[in-house]
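Q: Hi! New to this. If I give you a protein sequence and the SMILES for fe (ii) ion, can you show me the bound structure?
A: Yes, paste them in.
Q: Okay, here:
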Amino acid sequence: MINIADVAYSRLQAPDLDRMEAFLTDFGLVRAARTKTALYMRGTGPGHHIHITELGEPKFIGLAFHAQNADDLIQISKADGATPVETMDEPGGGQRVRLTDPNGISIEVVHGMAKLEPLGVRANVMNTGDASRRRAGTRKILKAGPAHVKRLGHFGIVSPDPAATVAWYRSTLGFVGSDEIYVDTEDNVMASFNRVDHGAEYVDHHTFLCVHGMRAGLNHLAFEVADTDDLLIGHDHMKAANSGSHMWGPGRHVIGAQVFDYWLCPWGHLHEHWTDSDMLNHDHPLALHPRGEGVVGSQWGPPPTQAFVDQVS
Ligand SMILES: [Fe+2]
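A: Thanks. Here is the predicted structure of the protein with fe (ii) ion bound:
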């Protein structure tokens, strides 16, 4: 029905906002607003917030997407089960339409939210590869501390019915397939990686991942950080602060090729740091891969931990 601009924010529920804010601050997010009942965290990018936690029993509520324009908000309000366009009574303002995906996950399509001044991040020029003298004559001294999360870049959901789920996200929000991993036959998809459709413009390899599983719900939330140094410094900080549980990484994915590192929040929601994704455009048709060596795991770094595998399926 529409082609979304990008994923905007996630919406979780947790019983202790102080504890969630402490975890997310160590993870590299910054408080944008906090009310008695909700926590709004931003990245260094201009989005007003990219992560919401509402006070309550631990729960994944859903995801929000930026519409490209106000007309698209009206268009999506005509989808089956969609609300009319409503004004958001939350920090950041804007308007939204609410829908529910085939797994019962709350979906918001938003437009007109406030933008914030981006937060400064140190430059990180590398002497590497063909550009081995880019910072000749300068010294590099990096500071310890949390990673610098830029934006929510992608999300994964688990579904007992990936085919129906992927069909809904493609037909409703405009996603297109980048890569799929299948078992035995090509229609038996166990993982589907989908990007936003901006035509000739290059976009992240995937914004939406759907994985087959026995339950329906969140697989992971994935936040882009400044660069590889930033991801590794953030890893050291999370360990030193004893914040969250480390689940897998650092490594470089095969499909999408991001450098990654995964952390579990205190209520069992998987949060990923990533940087340096493949970027594709409309010249890249969907590629299908049989499950097996060479499509899952890492290009470098450790294999997935059993705790990670259990968590995401
Ligand atoms: Fe990811």
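A: The radius of gyration is 19 Å. Let me know if you'd like me to explain how to read the tokens.
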